[in-house]
Specification:
Elements: H1 12-22, E1 39-43, E2 50-54, E3 57-68, E4 79-86, H2 92-95, H3 101-116, E5 126-128, E6 132-144, H4 149-163, E7 165-166, E8 169-172, E9 175-178, E10 187-188, E11 195-202, E12 208-210, H5 214-219, E13 222-229, E14 234-239, H6 247-282, H7 296-332, E15 358-361, E16 367-370, H8 382-386, H9 388-407
Parallel strand pairs: 4-6
Antiparallel strand pairs: 1-2, 2-3, 3-6, 5-6, 7-10, 8-9, 11-12, 11-13, 13-14, 15-16
Helix pairs in contact: 3-4, 4-6
Length: 408
């Protein structure tokens, strides 16, 4: 699909070597015709930053967003734009072509893969119809290039979009309040399906090479790029120039690409999941703290539960104090007996259970035993009647002494 003019980069001997080795059913780097190069995926410190390497082709991707006014033709849809550049760190002869039609064609391919196929729901980017929408921009920068620009750009774009989190918002009438990551957890984009681009180089003898290198692209007569999602749906079939391809060859490319989709999607999802775990442990991302925090509703429920528990604890303490006060009053209004656990009485001072007399406390904390037949208030007891007034005074003094002992 995307092919740099490489006539000035490789010599005739190098191209002849590629033709010769293809006749032996092998490739320059030892791969088979349908084999992909090693795919490596990394991420930056900020959400949406990715570092993808496909063989020696390396791409840095980043996603940015801002709230803008929508188009008058589509007031309920947001914007999704792609930018593809080649860094001067690449081969100088390749970097000189960074303003050519190849990069423009790469941008158009990405638009068809992600926008036309509705992989990214642009309607979900609408904040206020006709007034505010999200504008998402994907920047791709090739810092090293060794062929297959289309696949590397599509994989990097998809990885960055899956990894990106936009700020959460609150809409109040016609006003949009954008919350920072400290206030609310950022929100992922609404990606409806995952398209994968697989590019084949069409060689002069009709051979199709998956994931062509820069040297193989220089020898080929054209490229064929197909995009298939995980639902086995064909999203895009793109061919710009070169010799005609029989329909049978195109079907073969679709079958091969279908197997490559599972491999590439698995690598991307595993990389994103591993990075999420890494961020949660090390706290590298600006939104990693939000993974462990409770939502507003859960926090309110927890606060209510804590308040109820505290109220119950206070009520229990009040009830215990009331019970203690009542018990203290009951003890003050009656004389204590040896069976009361609050009275410490020596065992040797206690009589047998058959003739156990009543016990009262004196001021010196000594025991005074009153024989049942000498208890005050009984009729026929002349001795007790003679000193009735004195004993009544002693009973009042005994109650006061009991109160003093309890207070101590």
């Amino acid at each position: 699909m995307v092919k740099f003019e490489t006539s000035e980069i490789f010599s005739k001997n190098q191209k002849d070597f590629v033709h010769q080795i293809l006749e032996e059913n092998t490739r320059v780097d030892g791969r088979t015709f349908t084999q992909y190069r090693r795919l490596t995926i990394g991420f930056g410190r900020v959400s949406g930053q990715s570092d993808v390497s496909l063989g020696k082709t390396r791409v840095l991707g980043s996603v940015k967003c801002r709230a803008v006014e929508p188009s008058s033709f589509r007031p309920k849809e947001g914007f999704l734009d792609f930018s593809v550049t080649v860094s001067p760190s690449c081969d100088p002869l390749v970097a000189d072509k960074r303003r050519g039609t190849e990069l423009d064609e790469a941008r158009r391919l990405l638009d068809r893969v992600f926008k036309t196929s509705k992989a990214v729901d642009v309607e979900s980017l609408c904040l206020i119809p006709g007034k505010k929408v999200w504008s998402i921009k994907v920047d791709l920068n090739f810092i090293d290039f060794d062929g297959n620009l289309a696949d590397a750009a599509a994989i990097t774009s998809l990885t960055s979009l899956l990894h990106f989190r936009r700020p959460d918002v609150t809409i109040k009438g016609d006003q949009v309040v954008i919350h920072s990551a400290d206030e609310r957890e950022p929100v992922p984009l609404n990606i409806q399906h995952v398209p994968i681009v697989v590019t084949f180089a069409i060689m002069p003898n009709g051979t199709l090479l998956a994931d062509p290198t820069l040297l193989e692209s220089a020898v080929s007569t054209g490229d064929l790029s197909v995009a298939i999602n995980t639902l086995n749906q064909v999203c895009v079939v793109n061919k710009i120039a070169g010799r005609a391809i029989p329909s049978g060859k195109i079907l073969d490319c679709l079958k091969i690409a279908n197997f490559k989709v599972d491999y590439i999607v698995t690598r991307i999802t595993e990389a994103v999941a591993a990075d999420a775990i890494k961020r949660k442990k090390e706290g590298l991302a600006e939104f990693s703290w939000a993974k462990d925090r409770q939502s507003v509703g859960e926090m309110e429920a927890i606060a209510k539960g804590v308040k109820k528990a505290m109220d119950r604890a206070e009520q229990t303490n009040d009830d215990e104090q009331d019970n203690k006060g009542k018990q203290s009053k009951r003890k003050r209004g009656k004389s204590l007996s040896p069976d009361d656990p609050d009275v410490q009485v020596p065992l040797e001072a206690l009589p047998s259970k058959k003739t156990r007399p009543e016990v009262t406390l004196q001021a010196e904390a000594k025991l005074t035993l009153l024989v049942p037949d000498q208890q005050p208030g009984k009729k026929g007891d002349t001795k007790q009647a003679a000193s009735g007034e004195t004993e009544e005074v002693e009973e009042v003094e005994e109650v006061e002494e009991v109160e003093e002992i309890e207070e101590v």
